[in-house]
Structure formats: structure tokens, C-alpha cells
Amino acid sequence: MTIEYRPKGTCSRKMTVDIDEGIIRSVHIEGGCSGNLQGISRLVEGMAVDEAIRRMEGIRCGFKSTSCPDQLAQALRQYHE
What we know:
By secondary structure, the protein is α+β, with helices and mostly antiparallel strands.
């Protein structure tokens, strides 16, 4: 399954996530802080969707109410819908 998500409240513009049997296979994020987002993408590859959501949901960026990791968690929630 491939999820395409448009983040809200962050610098990133689009997140594409490939999931197979509840495991994140790849993540591609357009925009945002390239190095940080490449690192996050590589860290979650091979991780269970539920675990990635648990680890990233609720992370804030400075004074913003969300962050790219939090938005990635919101994108992953679409897998459960």
C-alpha cells in the first residue's frame, strides 16, 4: 500500500510511504530539512507502523503544534483507515 500525504503546519510539502503487511518499506519526503528527514525516513524503514506512530506522534517543532515526525505519524494513521 502506498500512502500520499500533504503535511499541515510544517515545511515539508508531501510524504509518500510504502507499507507492506504493517511494515514501513520506504519513506520519501519532499521539502523540509533534507538531512533530518532523510535520517527519520531511514530510521523508520523496516519498523512496524504502530511502533513508528507511537514514537513520533506528538513531537513538536519549536513553538509549532506539530512537526514533520508528527505529520509522518498522522500519515501512517491512514494505513489503519
